[in-house]
Amino acid sequence: MAAGVPTTAEVRERLFVDFPMLQEIARRRPLYVEKLARVVRDCAEYNERYVLPRALEIDRVAEKDHEYFAWDLVEAGLKYNFLSLIIPTLVGGVGGLAVLFSLAMEEMCSACPGVANIFGAHALGIAPLLVAGSLQHWLTFLREVTEKEKQGKPVIMALAITEPSAGTDVEEPFFLSRARLSMSAKKVSGGYVLNGRKCFISNGSVAKYTWVTAAVERSRPCESWTGFLVDSDMEGFSVARVEEKMGQRACPAAELAFEDCFVPDENVVGFEGEGMQPGTLLTLAASRAPVGAIATGIARGAYQWFSRWADTARNGRKPASDQRVQMAMADMKTRIQLSRWAYLNAALSFDNSLGKVMTGPLLKSMEVLPGQVLYSEVVRRVFGSSFGKRFVNALIAAYTSSDAVTRAMANASMAKFVGGDTAMYVTSLALEHMGTDQCEERAWIEKAFRDAKLTQIYEGTNQLNRLTLYMSAIEGSLKVELARVLGPAGCGKGVA
Amino acid sequence: MELTRDLLLGEEQRMLVESVSGFRADVLDDIARDIDEEPTSGKVADAFERAARVGLAASLLSDGAGGQEMDVYSFCLALTEVSRGSAGFAALLLSHNLALYALEMAGAWKESEELTGGSSWAALAWPFIAGGGGGLAPFVPGGGGARRLVFLAPGGEDIFSVSPADEGVALSELGFPMGFRCSRPAGVEYSRVGAAAAGTLGLEAARQVEGMLLLGVASIALGISRQACEKAYEYARERYQGCDQVIGHQQVRLMLARMIAGTEAGDALVRQAAGGDGSFRLASCRVAKVVACDAAMSASLDGVQVHGGYGYMRDYGMERLMRDAKYCQAYPWARPNELLAVLTDLE
Ligand SMILES: Cc1cc2nc3c(=O)[nH]c(=O)nc-3n(C[C@H](O)[C@H](O)[C@H](O)COP(=O)(O)OP(=O)(O)OC[C@H]3O[C@@H](n4cnc5c(N)ncnc54)[C@H](O)[C@@H]3O)c2cc1C
């Protein structure tokens, strides 16, 4: 809801109120908190200038024309570096981690989760390259994103794990081992040939690069699950259809077809067999806190519209003077605050585990290398080699542990379903109180209600996330295994 | 899926349900998505004409007025069945039938004669909130495209039947409500309640119309719940995930069981509140309405969830159920106000 663009200082104060622990962090790392506030302020400005004036219209246009994509809104986001928020500074990105990105998502989603999810799904496509530590891809693909961003040309990414007959099953190792998969990857000389379909892929129809998973051996899907970076120009790749969705329409979801699509060896992310453990699990550990933030932002947006409605007199009386509305608002505010804490807690645990690799001194020290050296063919080859990949794996193992990232994954699952349930609760309750009153506020809250439902489904249904939390934090049977320095990570439920 | 209600139906009621179900299969199922997306396309009018042919456009009118003389519960059953195909279309039929019924009760039948042919519909503009010499009905299903608008003047004594083109009538079709879309809901203002009324309804009859409206919405909600239960159940049996049929997972079974429990509770309350002799206790109608609509809301949300990502896609029809369910909760009164009125009624 339009409220004027706040200053960075105002945002910082608000963040301190919303998340008091940040005040403590600011004492030790003032620049870090300043950066968070600056990014959130940018998001607020972007909402105010570009999104709020257009969001309802885009929702309606995209209902009729589901392939519609607001490139101009993406372009407007380039000056704020929204496509490089989580790309390491080493290759020209903003260098944000889960906390920064989550805060950005909450802010953006308070205006329009559809538009925000373009950047959200883009970051999701980047995440596997970060967590699998495939440095050579940072130097090529991620650098391309940041460079083009500076030139005003968006390069969008996506992540494709869901298949028509395997959704929940491709999000969890134990289920994957018995999933009905349609995708396959066959090793051939110099690369792999992909065949099959992926469905519901956010940004799928507009992305230049998509991280795609497939089993190399059908009989051992989990052990041979591998991540590939597919360029939309590759032969054999096509967009089979763009889905017609109930909400978040500004961000298209597409079915992708792979017909003898050849992907060269250098586009394999990590090692063959690292697609699930650790690839998918680490990616989800990184991305589910931001999904909790997306949901929190939807709830917050709806709450703000509802407050405005409640404060506007109807027939001489403000709804907010009714106790029923006061109670509802108290409940809404509480739930929103709890989901905010849940996602920030999860994001912090990610940043303090795997995130440390990205901000650690070794990678930082590489920033002093001149461009000619850093982006030279030799350096790229070294990091793309088996030795280079093992080196990065060793780095990850040195900075964090399997236990720490498993905890981060469990917290992220908690944040995801707490947030999704909150978004549904708040939007639904708001509409209950408004009756059929047709006003501007209602139009926004109805949209938020439709948008909110998706947050209980994507990134694993809320049911799956509850199971993940149970298995990883209660039963202890699911554990993220870091890529081994020698040989790929194991699979299965992870208890060695 | 046979629920308790089905076992309790009498022969005539069973035949009614079967016949309406035939209408749903022949007419509504194919166009439900289209009329939700393009309510003004002409398909609604065609479907309305077909509904009239099977007696759904004059369900409550007396035999003498060319109607079916349905009892309230049968009307509820019919609405539930229609709603399984399209809740919005059921809302249109409810609004139309009640408008005609109110006119007949008020002895203003002549006003509605032109409407029994089935080529056009009337809409009940209720609740009609008084203000400035006239009043406003903020959300009237069937308002857009209606030939006649029927108001119960504040207080409920007088009844007005006007054409949208008449002096003093301002009709604004609501742009993009997410629910009941094919009924083309409209906001209607009427400034000439001082003019001659079409008839006098009386307070008791006005309460009866209100009760029937509440039970009608409850029945539409039951249609949503039933559809959600059945489609989710079928889907959960077809889909394999997590090493098993989806229905094999205990949490999915729990969701389905909850959906069924809510539907059963709503069914029972509607049946009880509809009574046999057509006289209602308004408080019971309200309770039935709130319970049935809450059940529809939660069943449709769970129904989408059981379908996973497919539930979110328009092709599957599940998302429409949840959009319409939200309007069941909101119409004619906001849910908390409906609940508060239960107590007022009892007092
Ligand atoms: C708009 C949209 C955008 C999306 N974007 C992306 C994207 O960018 N990339 C991507 O890869 N995917 C994406 N997805 C896919 C999304 O992650 C999946 O829809 C989700 O994981 C659920 O999978 P499914 O739809 O196959 O449902 P299913 O797995 O078939 O689940 C159906 C039902 O069964 C339940 N269930 C399944 N297995 C179990 C079990 N073992 N135990 C208990 N219950 C179970 C589920 O909770 C659900 O209620 C998107 C989906 C949508 C709708």
Topology, element by element:
The complex is a heterodimer of chains A (496) and B (347).
Chain A: H1 8-18, H2 21-28, H3 30-51, H4 55-64, H5 71-78, H6 98-109, H7 113-131, H8 135-150, E1 157-160, H9 173-176, E2 184-188, E3 191-202, E4 209-215, H10 221-224, E5 225-231, E6 237-242, E7 253-264, E8 268-269, H11 275-310, H12 323-351, H13 355-359, H14 361-366, H15 371-374, H16 377-384, H17 386-399, H18 402-434, H19 440-454, H20 462-475
Parallel strand pairs in A: 1-4
Antiparallel strand pairs in A: 2-3, 3-7, 4-5, 5-8, 6-7
Helix pairs in contact in A: 1-3, 2-3, 3-6, 6-11, 6-12, 7-11, 8-16, 11-12, 11-18, 11-19, 12-18, 16-17, 18-19, 18-20
Chain B: H1 4-8, H2 11-37, H3 43-53, H4 72-85, H5 87-105, H6 110-113, E1 122-125, E2 129-131, E3 134-140, E4 148-152, E5 158-162, E6 169-173, E7 186-190, E8 199-200, H7 203-238, E9 240-241, E10 244-245, H8 250-274, H9 282-306, H10 318-330, H11 335-346
Parallel strand pairs in B: 1-4
Antiparallel strand pairs in B: 2-3, 3-7, 4-5, 5-8, 6-7, 9-10
Flavin-adenine dinucleotide sits between chains A (121, 158-162, 167-168, 171, 175, 200-202, 245, 253, 454, 457-461, 463-464) and B (239, 241-242, 246, 249, 251-252, 305-306, 308-310, 312).
